[in-house]
Amino acid sequence: MVLASEPSFPSAFPKLSSSPRFHSSISKRIFSDVVGDITIYVDGQPFLLHKFPLVSRSGKIRKMVVDSKDPDLSKLELHNVPGGAETFELAAKFCYGTNFEITTRNVAHLRCIAEYLEMTDDYREENLISRTETYLNEIVVQGLEKSVEVLCSCEGLNSMAEDIGILDRCIDAIAINASKEQLVSGLARLECDGETGKLKLGCQDWWLEDLSVLKIDIYQRVIAAMRRTGVRSDSITASIIHYAQMSLKGIEKRQAWDSSMVIGDEQRLVIETLVGLLSTEKITSVPLSFLFGMLRMAIVVDAALGCKLELERRIGFQLDMASLDDLLIPSLQNSDSVFDVDTVHRILVNFLQRVEEEDSEESSKCGYESDGLKSPSHDAILKVGRLMDGYLAEIAPDPYLKLPKFMAIIELLPDYARLIEDGLYRAVDIYLKAHPSLTESECKRLCKLIDCSKLSQEASNHAAQNDRLPVQMAVRVLYFEQLRLKSSLSGSSADGFFSQRMISSSGAPSLAVSPRDNYASLRRENRELKLEISRMRVRLSELEKEQAFMKQGMRDNKSGEHGRAFFASLSRGIGRIGIFGQGHGQQQKSTRKSQGSEGKHRRRQRRSV
Q: What are the angstrom distances between the C-alpha of 458 and each of 30, 385, 415, 482?
């Protein structure tokens, strides 16, 4: 569309005020006082014209007149004319010298029909080819918006516009101008770093809206050209997201159960092409919500398998950032479950593959960075573990959900993904309640996936009274409850239950734990041990206070043998008899010593007498 401010590009001849417009009817003539001598049919539409102005500028028409060898030739037929009759009318006006405006809407058509009619400078200077080339070079390729308008006008001219080079020039012009805008906006950001964010918002890529009107094949070539010219990756990603939002609006609102809507091949092509463009971008540069939206639409339009797998792979690498609503993808199979469990299963597989790759990379490094090191993969697995427990609880009430699919999600996550399995127990209990037709063996297989040692006190109490659970699980729950009770009575979590927890957390399943994850687990257990040591110190101080209290009671009690016997029995009761027996022996020894000295003194007195 031509803007009002766009400069006109007139033809080389002055405007004839008395000339009528061309019309498809033969009765309309270019000059009212000169009768036309030739009728040219353009795709079946007639034009009554004159030979001289046409053959003076069009090499094709000149050759056709010469080759006919008929001096009274009055009719010619032109087939497959670029732009049709409307564009031929403009070319004929140019031959007659009628002034008209060359715009971004008609320049591609005029350039193609000029090539078709061979309107080169060999027949007349400043012919239509040179005039349209001047407009393209001096006006169109100098601006991004005009290049986009010309590309949009090339619909129906792809083959000839491609051969002439209009598409390539406009595409390169868009990429170059976008790169220039990026440089200018980058300088503007540097200038406004210390100011408010309003100026920074004005530096955003304004051309995103312009590119959204292009056809998907042309848009794909534009993005490739932008990458070659060095346009920022975040700008390209933002452009792809905006293009998807503008071109796939109808599919977004489609309900999964609405089978009456027919999705055309065009939407499928758009999705597959955009996903292909995203495959070269960084994983973290694409928002996770956009990837989930594209995956839902890819499932709706039945896109190619490679397209859906690429989206699942990119989602799996960021699964720890997903929400529960993102995973609730409706299933389009009428006989299947309500939600697409298979897709979520593949996404989870991709996430675990990413964790394994990180573990293999970390295992090749020697040592740890610092004492405060925190494993990102361990935190991510814990988040995904909680996320999958919530997902299992959401899909469990589905009566059409098969047990193997439900168990496959549970078995896929490693044991160290759940520190507490209350969420898993809740999901299993919901599934058992919604599927009362399960056999006893199936219930046993499902409940074996729950680690009863990781259940909280509240969950254990509920499980012990749950009639839907097999007897074996109830026994296991009671066993671990007994260990917990024993630990609480003994006052030390290093015995019984705590040892079982250590076995369950650092035993056989720990073979699948990465070195960094194992290190984090050991540090966590170390903190628990320090806490238990602190508790034991508090208990020891209490015992020392009791000892001091009883010792004070011994000192205050000087009533004789009864008091000493009472104190001795107390000291023997707590295993501290040596402390008090030593003082009692010394007292007896001093008594005997004083009695002996008195006897010697009496004997000396008798001898002297």
A: 95, 20, 21, 14
302 backbone dihedrals φ, ψ, rounded to 5°: 55, 55
SS3 content of the chain, % helix, strand, coil (to 5): 65, 5, 35
437 half-sphere exposure, CB direction, 13 A CA radius: 5
The whole-angstrom separation of Cα 521 and Cα 505 is 8
Long-range contacts from 288-296, C-beta under 8 angstroms, 24+ separation: 288/315, 288/318, 288/321, 288/322, 288/326, 289/326, 290/241, 290/244, 291/315, 291/318, 292/322, 292/326, 292/329, 293/252, 294/244, 295/329, 295/343, 296/329, 296/330
How wide is the angle at C-alpha 269 spanned by C-alphas 264 and 274, nearest 5°?
135
> What is residue 339's three-state secondary structure?
strand
Exposed/middle/buried for residue 577 (C-beta within 10 Å: 0-12, 13-18, 19+): middle
Q: What is the pLDDT of residues 189-245, one digit of tens each?
A: 555 444 444 444 344 567 888 899 999 999 999 999 999 999 988 889 999 999 999
pLDDT in tens, 329-359: 999 876 678 999 999 999 999 999 988 887 6
Is residue 23 pLDDT above 50, yes or no?
no
pTM score: 0.70
The confidence score (pLDDT) of residue 177 equals 92
Q: Which amino acid is at 97?
A: G
On the CB side of 93, CA atoms within 13 Å amount to 22
Asked if residue 174 lies in contact with residue 167, where contact means CB atoms within 8 angstroms, the answer is: no
Q: What is the CA radius of gyration of the chain?
A: 45
Work out the angle at residue 307's Cα, subtended by the Cα atoms of residues 304 and 312, and round it to the nearest 5 degrees: 130
